[in-house]
Amino acid sequence: MQTYLVGGAVRDELLGLEVKDRDWVVVGATPEEMLAKGFKQVGADFPVFLHPETREEYALARTERKQGRGYHGFSVYSAPDVTLEEDLKRRDLTINAMARSEEGELVDPFDGFRDLKDHALRHVSPAFAEDPLRILRTARFAARLTPLGFRVCDDTMRLMRQMVAEGEVDHLVPERVWQEIQRALHEHEPDTFFEVLQACDALAVLIPELAVPGVLEEALEALRCISGSDTETDQRVAALFSVLDEETARHRAATLKAPNDCRSLAGLTAHFKAEVTELCSMDRLPADRLLELLDTADFWRRPERFQALTEVLECALPEPERAFLKVLGKAADSATGVSPKALMEQGLSGKALGRAIREERLTRIQQSLPDTNN
Ligand code: CTP
Q: Where along this sequence does the record place binding of CTP (predicted)?
């Protein structure tokens, strides 16, 4: 039995990056032998085990065969006679297909180390095409490693295009797609992820509304702006979708199975963007429309949410309209001074209380507004 460190850990160690997860491959063992050594089996279908102390994953060397489309139809073949090279061969990129033995020797049958030095994201073999998720993974590695000079190789880009043309991406389940998008949004250059997907035509399948020349550039500009600082996933999604109308933004976020906070902030951003454009064309700002915006954003109960939205809008709005955010911020600040408690102490309750709060807020917003909107 021989154990090897494989995949991302070997890659990151050679790149001098922090190693987060360590995955191992075991050659020459049976599941029974692993269980006898105290390893715990993870799941029923894959021959993967957890180390009893480190909790790191140890997989028996395996090959995979595919029979169906998309992410379905894999059959795993694992036996003590499957070699390390066979296991590495079914992996996605050459830089992810290196192993290190317990003695410290690098096992690199597909020239991953050369590609690492050449900054090349290159597929290991035609078996890359058996898993369309690898298109998204490759785009994600580009988003992570482009700042180090990495590029997707021409051959790999051609293969990815061919996979898209053959309809492979159509069959990916939304959960897996979302998982990759979510991770990509937090890589060094999230915009590169979408550029690679556009270059291989996968974006037109996954988020067709963005795959339009002009629209994509504008979306990526907003994304670059928001991802320049330490922002959350929902803000990044909202910036990306800020070029879409509200209904489309909500629909697309829902079909991607993005979490609720992403869906709502994306919808809210698109809603605000349209409203702000209209309000900015008016000579005088109507206080009731500003109050309505603050109500829609649930500002009174969740001011931090409004703050997150404002940060997105700073990136999503064109320069002249950005000035409106200051006006809205001032209006919000002045209206927070209204105290429902004080009004209740004056004996107001129910609908009358609601009306009084609204009137008071409107008055304060009105007072905070500039004389003209120019
Ligand atoms: N792998 C693959 N195809 C996939 C998923 C994984 O070939 N669809 C292989 C790659 O060799 C990868 C390894 O399995 O290196 C481990 O996968 P994972 O832990 O998901 O990725 P990492 O390469 O470790 O990447 P990250 O740093 O993003 O975790």
A: 8, 11, 91, 137, 140
